[in-house]
Design brief:
- With 293 residues, the protein is mainly alpha-helical.
- The protein has a single domain (65-289), classed as Orthogonal Bundle (MetI-like fold), CATH 1.10.3720.
- Helices cover 73% and strands 1% of the residues.
- The chain has helices at residues 2-38, 55-62, 65-96, 103-115, 118-128, 135-142, 157-182, 186-194, 199-210, 212-227, 231-236, 248-258, 262-286, and strands at residues 41-42, 50-51.
- The chain has a two-stranded antiparallel ribbon with strand order 1-2.
- The longest helix is centred in the first third of the chain and has 37 residues, at 2-38.
- The chain is globular, with a radius of gyration of 24 Å.
Length: 293
């Protein structure tokens, strides 16, 4: 009787889980496996698939100068967005972790850009960066400075995208830090006040260590997100000028849907996967020395 009951419960559990399992197999697992196999082929959607072995990967690493350029741009974007975004988000969370009337409105205001459409946000920032009638250049003109052609210059295009990306992602990291701050027991700060600790001492010896798990999570998610950046690049610059803002995902998109090199695009995708995997594995290993659980 008990064995029969276990089988019955297992049947109903599997029945209710089956839509999610089927969706995972059809839209995640099988496409991942298929793209891995495709990375060893040549296919342009029109002619039959032809086995190419490791030629896509060898061309990528040894014959494709554009690949190394977009890989460098991806690292540039990551280094430019992750540390600065995390620091600003932390101090923003500290500023918003106050018991003041109307504070929830300020928290919501900072979080709205993150849940807004990336395309809409990118279009707005495209207008802000416009060299003729953009608001940023207008502000610079008030102090006698001629604003640059933000998105059309190889020197300023990537920094402009980085600034926009930091602004948009602040809300997500800020919310995580805010949750972490509210989980720190208040008596730690009370004891520090009794000992005469100043603000910086409390921040460095109480807040930072007890937020290490939150910082670790924000770091991992920020790095993964920065390596996958695409929307704002595609809308604001299209990867230009002269590939100054082209990143790995944008290059993968171009190979797949502009050049119809599906195998080559799949190879780029798996290089991206291994880069993200490597960075995540290193962070997981190094976290033992600074994350306090």
């Amino acid at each position: 009787m008990k064995k029969k009951l276990v089988y019955r419960d297992g049947f109903w559990a599997f029945l209710f889980l089956s839509p999610n399992l089927i969706g995972f197999l059809a839209f995640v697992f099988l496409p991942v496996v298929a793209s891995f196999v495709l990375s060893f082929t040549e296919w342009d959607l029109l002619t039959p698939v032809r086995w190419a072995g490791f030629s896509n990967y060898s061309n990528l690493f040894f014959n494709d100068d554009i690949f190394w350029r977009v890989l460098w741009n991806t690292f540039y974007f990551t280094v430019g967005t992750v540390p600065i975004g995390m620091v600003i988000s932390l101090f923003l969370a500290i500023a918003l972790d106050q018991k003041i009337v109307g504070m929830k409105l300020f928290r919501a205001a900072y979080f709205i850009p993150f849940i807004s459409s990336t395309v809409a946000v990118a279009v707005v920032w495209q207008w802000l960066y416009n060299p003729q009638f953009g608001f940023l250049n207008y502000l610079l003109s008030l102090v006698g400075v001629q604003g640059p052609n933000w998105l059309s210059s190889t020197r300023t295009a990537m920094p402009a995208v980085i600034i926009m990306s930091i602004w948009r992602s602040l809300g997500f990291s800020m919310l995580l830090y805010l949750a972490g701050l509210q989980g720190i027991p208040e008596h730690y700060y009370e004891v520090a006040d009794i000992d005469g600790a100043n603000w910086f001492t409390k921040f460095w010896h109480i807040t930072v260590p007890l937020l290490s798990t939150t910082t670790f999570f924000v770091l991992i998610m920020s790095i993964i997100g920065s390596f996958q950046v695409f929307d704002q690049i595609f809308i604001m610059t299209g990867g230009g000028p002269a590939r100054a803002t082209s990143v790995l995902v944008h290059y993968m998109y171009q190979n797949a849907f502009n050049y119809f090199r599906m195998g080559y695009a799949s190879a780029v995708a798996y290089v991206l996967f291994f880069v993200v995997f490597l960075f995540t594995a290193v962070q997981l290993r190094k976290s033992k020395s600074w994350v306090v659980y």
